[in-house]
Amino acid sequence: VTFTNGVANSVPITLVKAETVKLKATQGATTGMSADIVVSGAAANIFTVNAPGSPIAGVAFTVQITAYDQFGNIDTGYGGSHTLVFATPGTAPDGTAPQYPGSVNFTAGTGTASISLFKREITSLKVTEGAKTGTSSTISVGSVPLPLSRRLVVTTRPARYHSSCLCRWSLASKTLTKIRKGYPTLTLP
Amino acid sequence: VTGTGALNTTSLASSGSFAGGVADLSGNLTFTGQTGSHTITATSASGKTGSATATITVGPAATAKIVNGSSAGATQITTTALTADQTLPLFAAGYDVSGNWAGALSGNWGSTGTLAPAVTNTAASSITFAPTSAPASGTITFNSGGLTAATGTVTVTPGALHHFVVNAPATATAGTATSVSITAVDADGNTVSSYTGAQTIVFSQPGTDQRAVPQPIRLM
C-alpha cells in the first residue's frame, strides 16, 4: 500500500464472505479498524440439494434446495418462484415417472420441493436452472416391506421348486410375474 | 569609584564634587547587576582607598516573562517546536528593572494562532501546554496586573505513528472489488504526514471463501 503524506487512498479490496465485518489493517504493532461493512453475497450460481438418503418408492418426500454464490455464500436475494429442471431418477418398471413440482418457491435463497420417486434404484437428484446446477448425495430408493396380511405367498409343486422370489402382482390382470427371465407368468383365478 | 557587579563607575573631580571633605554620590551610582552583597571602592589619584559594602535587593517586578522553570535560572521560552505527543511546561516570572528574577507571577494565560487546545487558564503561575492538533502554530500569552508576556512562536507537528484510520464502504458485494482509504495518525488522530511510500499492510478480519459448502445434513 502506497502512502502519500500519511494517507493511502483507493486501496482495492475484494471481500468474499457474506457477513458484517470490520476491516483491520496492521503493520507491526500498529493497527486500525474500519466501521462495520455489510457484505452481501453475489448472485447464485450453484445449488445444494438436500434429499433424504433412503426414500420409499411412491412416498413423497421433501427436498431442500439452497442457492449459493460462487464463494459459497447463500444468495439471500434469491427468492420467489423458480422453474427448476429435475433429473436422474428413473421411471418405474410399470412406466410410472418421477413426480416433480412445476416450480419451487424460494425465500432468502432456500426452497423446498415435494418429490415422489417410483423406481427402486440407487440414484441422485440433479436440479438445474439455466447454468445453475446442483446434485444431491446418493439416494437409495427402496420399497416398504409389506405386512403379512398383504403378502402373497406362492407355493409351487413339487417342493423342490419352492423358493422366495421377487414378483410383481398386477391387480388388473391378477397375474403374478416373477421378475427374473425364464420364469413363467402365473395367472390366478 | 568602582564596584563589583554591574556598578557604573564614576570619577570625581578634585574640587567641586567634595563639600567639607565629603562627596555625595547619591544619584550618581546606578547598580544594574545581580542582587546580593557588593563592594564599592573609592580610589584617589594618590592611591588612597576606601571601601564600603552594599547589599543589593530585588526591585519590584517591572516586566514579565514566560520561562521554562520556576527558579531564577529559568530561561525565556522563545521559538519552540514540539510534536503533538509532547508537552510544554510554562512558568510566569516577574523581573525587576535590572532583570533580576522577582519571583513567580500568577495571572491569566491565553494563546494565539491555531494552537489547540486553546489556552485559557486563570490565576495560575504555571501551565502545561499539551497540544492535540497538528500542524499548528501560535504563541502562548500571559497577563498579570498589566504585565504581559508571550512565548516565541510555538510550532506543533504530528506525533509518532500511533494507529491507522480505515475508511471502508458501509456495504459491499462478495467478489466485487471495492476500495478503502487508510490514514496513518498519531495518538491524537493527526495525520502523520511523514508516513509516506510503500508500506506493507496486513488486512484481516473478513471471512474467507466459503466455497467448501457444507454438505447438507442427511434426512435419514
Structural commentary:
The complex is a heterodimer of chains A (189) and B (220). With 189 residues, chain A is an all-beta fold. Helices cover 0% and strands 43% of the residues of chain A. In chain A, a hairpin with a 2-residue loop joins strand 9 and strand 10. About 3% of the residues of chain A have low confidence. Chain B is mainly beta and 220 residues long. In chain B, strand 8 and strand 9 form a beta hairpin. Chain B is rod-shaped, with a radius of gyration of 34 Å. Chain B starts with a strand and ends in a 16-residue tail after the last strand. Chains A and B meet through strand 1, strand 2, strand 3, strand 4 and strand 5 of A and strand 17, strand 18, strand 19, strand 20 and strand 21 of B.
Mean pLDDT across all amino acids of chain A: 85
- Per DSSP E runs of 2 or more residues, the count of β-strands of chain B stands at 21
Helix content of chain B: under 10%
Which regions of chain A contain 5 or more consecutive residues with pLDDT less than 50? 158-163
Order of helices and strands of chain B: EEEEEEEEEEEEEEEEEEEEE
Rg from Cα of chain B: 34 Å
Largest interface: A-B, 59 and 55 residues
Which oligomerization state do the chains in this entry correspond to?
heterodimer
In DSSP terms (H or I, runs of 4 or more residues), the helix count of chain A works out at: 0
